[in-house]
Write the structure tokens for this entry.
Amino acid sequence: MSILAVDQGTTGTTCLVVDDDLAILGRGYAELPQHFPRPGWVEHDPDEIWASVLAAAEQALAAARTTPEAVAITNQRETTVLWERTTGRHVGNAIVWQDRRTAERCAELPADLLRERTGLVPDPYFSATKLEWLLRDRDPRGLAFGTVDAWLVWKLTGGRVHATDETNASRTLLCSLATLDWDDELLDLFGVPREVLPEIRPSGADFGQGELLGLTLPVRGVAGDQQAALFAAGGAKATFGTGAFVLVETDAEPRHGVLRTAAARLGAEPPLRALEGAVFVTGAALQWLRDALGLLDDTAESEELARSVSDTGGVVFVPALTGLGSPWWRADVRGSISGITRGTTRAHLVRAALEATAFQTADVLAAMPQLESLRVDGGMTRNRWLMQFLADVLGIPVETAREPEQTALGAALLALGERRPSPVGERFEPATDVSELYAAWRDALGRLLSVS
């Protein structure tokens, strides 16, 4: 049996055709244009999201030379889409999870209620204030809301199914984590009528019959990208892409700064929960160095540049380019680069960006249950220098996944109806004491937090 797994991410869409042994038969990728209409605003065109899915799926199917039996979906979470039910036309651009336009509104919200009811914090990251913003001057009658998964299910099924899964719903600030259903008190708080909301289903459920590139396939297996990667990892993981996300499947109560969220489950399993720490900017820092400053031709250069210098030359980068996530949750903080001299080179800046990825991960893990090792996945895990530095900072072994695209494999496992970990790739043992470097980064972070 083969599955077409669609991984619709922030910067692009990856599609994999995999068999039931998780061997990759075909792969496709299409970039997704980013839109920045104002400082702090980040948007996607929903039609461009769908076009990227079609392009990536076409590549994957052509390479696989086989017809899959089902399509599974994993997606960037929290990104908010609003469209007309009768026409299927989107109402404005999607507001991306990185968008900070609702920061002032979030400061007004009842933090204790939201934490107790949803496991989350009042932050622009989540969907509710984005949807509230989109609905502010509109009649909600005849409109449909969804995170990206629901938009893709709608497109695949020709509007016959308006549904999301528990993991995506749990990231909206509108869903009770206890009942895994939309919460009336929260709907009233944000002025969201229940009629615009999708049905919530378990991640391993069926989501209707879909049509894609001339194929009619069941849509089965839907989960937010981080929960899909957790499903593939088997209990605890960190995914490094645009941001970094650390999840541990547990019913334990969270410590300060980490979130509770729904974990992906097969249809017959009882509801599952996880703790999550979210770092907003990791790979996005390299993209910024490439696109805004022109210091990189390709982010893959970062490993070679980091190895070309013995240290950062005193440069410390706190990449709060869209505020700070776990464990600080400070939407108002902006990034900083300190310690620059005339001797600073692009290699020092790139290395400082990579080091910041490891330091931010350590901050999150300090608020999580103690781990004996960390399973990692995502595009940045191809950077072996970063993986070794991460093991040094954390002081525990770091294991990469054999296939970096664990989000897609997690979705495929959900579609297959199987719970089993994907194969391990390489193991990095702690080798160097870098505690002084971490302390210097924490000093820079503390100064930034105190003045913002």
Observations:
- The radius of gyration is 21 Å.
- The chain has 14 helices and 23 strands.
- The first strand starts at residue 2 and ends at 8.
- Residues 245 and 278 are 5 Å apart (CA to CA).
